[in-house]
Amino acid sequence: MAINAGPVKDLPGYHRAAGERQIAGHLPATAAGSEQLFFWLFESRRDPARDPLVLWLNGGPGASSLFGVLVENGPYQIARDSNGLQLIDNPYSWNQQANYLIIDQPVGVGYSFGGDASALNETISTEQLYFGLQQFFQRWPEYRALDFYIFSESFGGHYVPRLATAVLAGNQRGEPAINLRGIGIGNGWVDPLLQQSTYGDYAYSHGLIGPHQRREVDTLYAECKAAIEASGPVISRQTNRICERIESYILQVSGIDDPLKKFDIRFSTTYDDAENELQWMSEYL
């Protein structure tokens, strides 16, 4: 199938040539080709012919993997100076020692786009992602023999196991093999009912809430549990809002409701970069 992609030679706000081979474009997500997944490959700066290929997916659901490229573990960090938004090298980029591939998925997220076959559930989105991944390896077969890893965070607790299962099943069916060697999930969202139940335990054991507040958290969790059980296989936005009250309450009464403290309670000062980076990335893209 035709793939609309090509080399990346320069980027706005990055004032020198790229330090590695880059390819970006769109991969067909279905046989019809009307659904397209945006991808961006950054070759390893060490030994691209031997280093592993790592697929990075941001979570969400619905988060663009460009957040990984520009804010998290990708080759660049985004910053603002007197000349506007700039890209600077990330010394901790994963492509220091691995070929780093990102894909915007499901179809409709980020620079990916689709026609009638929208990814309405995880089954469809996984099928489309696997299809697109096979198109990538068919177009650039030099990467197929490399060790392949899938990493994500947050809702990647669903994306990663599903894609890994699809890859293994495809290998067993005799489809062109993908050399999957491992997976990784950071702070994964896997089981809402179970994970929501731990918030009160964590906050209480770390001294963030007292006995009275713990009882209030228990009440909020009971409401969350009832809403989840009444939702069926797909959790509604209303259910999500009900369950979000647990975290919101803990953050409010503990005084750690700022961009960084909720990710690391050891920090005692405010930190605005997290919000700035989201704003800067949206503006840059």
Mind explaining what this structure looks like?
It is a single chain. The protein is an alpha/beta fold. It has eight helices and nine strands. The protein has helices spanning 66-70, 122-139, 156-172, 192-196, 199-205, 211-231, 237-254, 273-284; strands at residues 4-7, 22-28, 36-42, 53-57, 76-81, 84-89, 99-103, 148-153, 180-186. Helix 5 packs antiparallel against helix 6 and helix 6 runs antiparallel to helix 7 (237-254). It is globular.
Compact overview of the structure:
The protein has helices at residues 66-70, 122-139, 156-172, 192-196, 199-205, 211-231, 237-254, 273-284; strands at 4-7, 22-28, 36-42, 53-57, 76-81, 84-89, 99-103, 148-153, 180-186.
Features:
two-stranded antiparallel sheet, 285 residues, 36% helix, 9 strands, single chain, Rossmann fold, alpha/beta
